Each structure stands twice: as structure tokens, then as C-alpha cells.
């Protein structure tokens, strides 16, 4: 699976809007908080499609329980009926049931991070559980995305520790609330770049490790099986 490649030119546009608004993103276009998540969703979907043999990437219906074509990557909203609740994910691959599900989570200002990050953690664990309780072989991935000026060193340490505990699921009988691929992305609104030092080197949360974790787990579970048997 190729690295998840974020369009830094577009990310710079979000940074300009974030700065113009005094350190936040709006919920309305252009350069909304939802569109920031969609930028990462698109990159994840395209990288996954390459791993799976260059298959098409399509937009699903938010109510459809199966894909519109037989072998495609869907870039949100992907409807999954899990063991806890129905949930729309941002990226999915479900040729015979859910094999891959991904969500991006953006908190875009200091106030939102302070008030909402624990609820976000609860959402991550619940979303992973709702997939794995029905589809234990599914590869589940998340990216948590923060603007660098909006997060303190203490909060970063707490976030990194928590997300690392939620990641690292490699076996299908491991806890359902953990996930196979987890990344923390810290982006700089000043120049539209992704911070290369946070998380620290060697952390499983670094964005360049995301594709490696997805590929190794997916291959271990599905190598040689249709639609990849040939």
C-alpha cells in the first residue's frame, strides 16, 4: 500500500482559512472542517485502492448496505450495520462484507480539543467495536487530525498515549475496541505542512506507518482469497 499522500497545496488553503478565522474552521464551505476530513479520506481511499490492485474508487450512497459495484473502494459515507449500532464510515471496502473501514476525526481549535477529545476517544472505541463485533477480520483504521497551534504539549502526550493503547490490533481474537491502524496527524496552518516530529520517531501513530499497518494486516487475513486469488 503506497503512503497516504495528502495534497499539501489544499492543506495550505485550510491553513489560510484557519488563520483568517482566528484559529478555527467553519462547518460551511469553502475549507470547512468536514472538507478537511474529506481531504484525508480521499488520500486513504486512493492508497487502499492501489493496494487492492488499482481497483476503482467510488462514492457510495449513505443508505446502501452493499457497494454499487462488485470490487471497489468506497469513499464515504459507507453504511455499516455493526454489533453496537449502524455507523457511516468515511472509507470502506466490502466486497463480501466489511474488510476495511476508516474514519477521520478532526478537532480544529483549542476549545473544541479541550471539550471534545474524550468524547472522540469514546467514539473511536465504539466504532471499532461495532465493526469488529460483527466482522472480526475487518481492518479498521482511524486518523485523528489536529492543527498544531491549538494543542498543548500536555494534551499531545495524553492523546498519543491513549491512541497508542487503542491501536496495534493484529489478531482477530484481540479486543474489539482496538484497531489495526491508527494515526495522529499534526498539521501546521502557517504553511500547510504535516509536522514531521509529532508523533515522535518510532511511534506507531506516524502517518507514514499507517499504510504499512493496513497492508500487513490485510495481507495476513486475505492473501490468496477472492477477489485476490489470482
Write a brief structural summary.
The chain has 230 residues and is of the alpha/beta class. The protein has helices spanning 8-20, 33-51, 110-132, 153-166, 207-222; strands at residues 57-58, 73-81, 86-93, 100-106, 139-147, 181-188, 193-194. The protein has one domain.
**Separate helix tally:** 5
Quantity of strands, as a count: 7
Strand content: 15-25%
- What's the alpha carbon Rg, rounded to whole Å? 17 Å
Major sheet characteristics = 7 strands, mixed
Order of helices and strands: HHEEEEHEHEEH
The overall number of domains is: 1
Strand order of the largest sheet: 1-2-3-4-5-6-7
Q: Classify the secondary structure makeup into a structural class.
A: alpha/beta
Q: How much helix is in the residues?
A: 25-40%
What this model shows, in words?
The protein has 230 residues and is α/β, with parallel strands linked by helices. It has one domain (8-222). Helices cover 37% and strands 20% of the residues. The chain has helices spanning 8-20, 33-51, 110-132, 153-166, 207-222; strands at 57-58, 73-81, 86-93, 100-106, 139-147, 181-188, 193-194. Strands 1-2-3-4-5-6-7 form a 7-stranded mixed sheet. Helix 4 links the parallel strand 5 and strand 6 (181-188). It is globular, with a radius of gyration of 17 Å. The mean pLDDT is 96.
